Automatic annotation (TrEMBL):
GO terms for biological process: lipid metabolic process. It comes from Caulobacter segnis (strain ATCC 21756 / DSM 7131 / JCM 7823 / NBRC 15250 / LMG 17158 / TK0059) (Mycoplana segnis). Transmembrane segments: none annotated. It holds the Pfam family GDPD. Residues 23-257 form the GP-PDE domain. This is Glycerophosphoryl diester phosphodiesterase. GO terms for molecular function: phosphoric diester hydrolase activity. InterPro entries: GP_PDE_dom, PLC-like_Pdiesterase_TIM-brl.
Length: 257
């Protein structure tokens, strides 16, 4: 991994330096027989090992930002229904994967993490939508003194941050858009998303690219122009070895990077 030149202003502070090192644990440092993903225990484990943290946030029925990846509750809680139909209090009483861990709010997660780790906050805002989740995340970040960046696939979300809070470091997510969920999109939308056509709209500070996009001449071109590239989700040392010369950092799971 190589260090990029700091932007001409000190807009991002420590977050810019910690964009490049250490690697980020995907949904925290979780394991199938240990701390569940996106839990306070997984974030504590990542901090204890000196890693950065990637986590997911969504908006609850009562407008709170909570840390949870899936649209539905079944996989992580064993309950039926959509996450967004519940209040933060309801979700905070649900246990994760048969453990004592519950669904934390973003504010609670950042309070526990403090200044110990860089946090990549993936906003699960639906494509084309923007507003309530971005505003709530911003309110939480105002009270947090540790290094953070917002990431996500929605270019309109990034554009909102660029216009309203340019001091918050932001990274545009993308991947090959050839899985089952992506195939539900119109072909022209899939093509534009996979080709990084949204960069002009999003105006990101860095790119967070799936392994199916790396290495690629276009990503190399953006990187050569000074836009860092983070690889996700790296699940083995061999995978990282294959792309590390084309990236500046990694989001990993399943091993210790």
């Amino acid at each position: 991994m190589r260090t990029r030149e700091r932007p001409s202003t000190d807009t991002f502070g420590e977050a810019w330096e910690r964009l490049f090192d250490p690697p980020a644990a995907h949904r925290g440092l979780w394991s199938p027989d240990g701390a569940p993903e996106n839990s306070l225990a997984a974030f504590q484990a990542a901090c204890a090992h000196g890693y950065a943290i990637e986590l997911d946030v969504q908006l609850t029925a009562d407008g709170e930002a909570v840390v949870f990846h899936d649209d539905r509750l079944e996989r992580m809680t064993g309950r039926e229904g959509r996450m967004r139909d519940h209040t933060a209090a309801d979700l905070g009483a649900m246990t994760l994967k048969g453990t004592d861990e519950t669904i934390p709010t973003l504010a609670d997660a950042l309070t526990m993490i403090g200044h110990r780790a860089m946090v990549f906050i993936e906003l699960k805002t639906p494509f084309g939508e923007v507003g309530p989740l971005e505003k709530r995340v911003t309110d939480v970040l105002v009270d947090h003194n540790g290094p953070t960046a917002v990431i996500g696939f929605n270019p309109y979300s990034h554009a909102w941050f660029a216009d309203h809070h340019p001091q918050i470091l932001r990274g545009l997510n993308s991947y090959g858009w050839n899985d089952d969920n992506a195939r539900k999109l119109a072909p022209e939308m899939r093509k534009s998303l996979a080709a990084l056509e949204q960069i002009e709209l999003a105006r990101p500070d860095f790119l967070s690219l799936g392994l199916d996009m790396l290495p690629s001449p276009r990503a190399d071109l953006y990187r050569a122009k000074g836009m860092p590239v983070i690889a996700w989700t790296v699940r083995s040392p061999d995978q990282w070895e294959g792309v590390q010369d084309h990236c500046d950092n990694l989001i990993f799971e399943g091993f210790h990077a």
